[in-house]
Amino acid sequence: MKNLLFLFCLCVLFSCEEKIPATPKDLTKEFLIPKPDSLLATGSSFQLTNETQIVIENGNEELNKVGQYLSKKLSPATGFNFPINFSDKKNTPNAIHFFISKNKKQLGEEGYELTVDENYIQLEGNTPAGIFRGVQTLLQLLPETIVKKTLQSESWEIASGNIFDFPNYEYRGAMIDVSRHFFGVEKVKEYVDHLARYKMNYLHIHLTDDQGWRIEIKKWPNLTAHGGSTQVGGGKGGFFTQEDYKEIVKYAADRFITIVPEIDLPGHTNAALASYAELNCDGKATKLYTGMEVGFSTLCTRNENTYEFVDDVIKELVEMTPGPYIHIGGDESHSTKKEDYIYFVDRVQDIVKKHGKQMMGWDDITAGSLTSNAVAQHWAKKENAKKAVGQNVKIVMSPASKAYLDMKYDSTTTLGLNWAGFIEVDTGYIWNPAALINGVKRENILGVECPLWTETVTDLDELEYLVFPRLLGYAEIGWTKQEDRNWEDYKVRLGNHQARLEALGINYYPSKLVPWTKPTEKGVKLKN
Ligand code: TNX
Question: Looking at the 3D structure of the chain, how many domains does it have?
Answer without folding.
Answer: 2
